[in-house]
Amino acid sequence: MWIVLIVALSDTSIVGPALGLTLKDLYPFGDQAGDEALSKNDDGSSPPIPILTLFPFFNHQHSKLFVNTNGVISFLQGVSTYTPDPFPIANDARMIAPFWADIDTTRGGAVWYRETTNADLLDRTTKEVTNNYPNFFRFKASWIFIATWDRVAFYGCAGVGCSKTNTFQAVLITNGQHSFTIYNYEDIQWTTGTASGGNSTTGIGGTPAQVGFNAGDGIVSFTVNASRSPDIVNVDKHSNVDIPGKFAFRIDASDISDGGCNTEGNLTIAPRYGPMLGGQYLIISGPCIEQNATIKVSFSGSPQKECERKSEFAFACITPLFSHTGDTPVKVEIKNQEGESRIFQGLYTVLNLADCKHQVHRHDASDWFSGRQQISWDPDVAELQEDDFVNIHLLFVALNTCGN
Q1: CA 173: distance to chain centroid?
Q2: What band does 403 get if pLDDT is binned at 50, 70 and 90?
């Protein structure tokens, strides 16, 4: 039995007493934590940072990212824009924005970052995910990226204005299939630089900071309440997980509408990527599916193949053999008993075999032809349940040995 786990981005209302986080509540950062630091700058970015794993974000897989001074982590390019535009934004502006505003570290503060697979930190992030998303009780983090804006000043500050600083943090978490982000806000004292209309002594006014996520396609985005409004200065007292100053989001897929399914829109595909050889078992969710509906899938215009309905909002499909790599359009047709069809679309990433991390492992390779083999796999990667069945297929390849 396969189970689809769907968690939508939570509401971002004010909860609990406005006590907020302390520096001890943030993940360790700075020199002592082994972080890299951006040089002091205004509107700058890191060079592209290669990361150890593919990071799923809004239906795309990423192998590198940029840390930007102005409170943003981006994936396709650096972000030097200092006045936050309203989401959604196109032009490949794919970003995670814990506090997009005009930061100037030449006036004060530092921006720190690192990726890590430290066991204690992986355990900590795993607990944060499983506590905030109970349906992901089998989730185990395998990779983390931590970026911290430490007591950063705003552009154009003067006099007492330069003593007003912000400290906040973004933590990116994944197990290779699902990804989450945690925003931690220790202290927010300003919202706007002077080039965005803010006051030089208060850092307030003009076009305030934006908090949220943007897919870069001009369509898909998520914005935390109070973004680009004066009240965003109180984000360190807000939460969507009952801890003032802390937010948690699942970000590997676009948001699913209320009720677990929809009559139109995009697909949620898990896993998000797989090998060129095909044979990947996919769980696809999003559409509402009637009991006796016929479901067919096509990848990049390939012939339609029938899928298996698993529930009223999920079905299973097997990927075909691909002759290409990269993002591949997925088209699903769902036809009810009356013959009425609905079309849904999504995106699947085809990987070169050299880039695939094999989830099934062969033991004692030297003894492979003895007639008895031992294999193992990681059940947490596929999020298998105790009563699930595993089908094992052996693939034989005939090699051309020059006519022998």
Answers
A1: 8
A2: low
In 3D space, the residue among 32, 23, 38, 25 whose CA is nearest the CA of residue 112 turns out to be: 38
Supply 376's token pair: 């193992």
Phi, psi of 324 (to 5 degrees): -150, 170
List, in sequence order, every beta strand (DSSP E) within 58-159.
60-68, 72-74, 95-100, 110-116, 143-152
User: From CA 87, how far away is CA 93, in angstroms rounded?
Assistant: 10
Residue of 192, 195, 169 lying closest to 110 (CA atoms): 169
The conformation of residue 87, written as its DSSP 8-state character, comes to S
**Cβ atoms of 286 and 278 closer than 8 Å:** no
Q: Is the pLDDT of residue 1 over 50?
A: no
Cβ atoms of 112 and 36 within 8 Å: the answer is yes
- The predicted pLDDT at position 312 comes to 65
Cα–Cα distance, 165 to 187 (Å, whole number): 8
Burial 275-311 (b: 16+ CB within 10 A, else e): bbeeebebbbbbbbbeeebbbbbebbeeeeeebebbe
Mean pLDDT value of segment 183-204? 98
Please tell me the least confidently modeled range out of 1-10, 159-168, 201-210, 223-232. Answer: 1-10
Whose tokens are 């080039």? That residue is 195
Q: Return d(Cα 259, Cα 286) in angstroms, integer.
A: 10
What is residue 377's predicted lDDT score, i.e. its pLDDT?
66
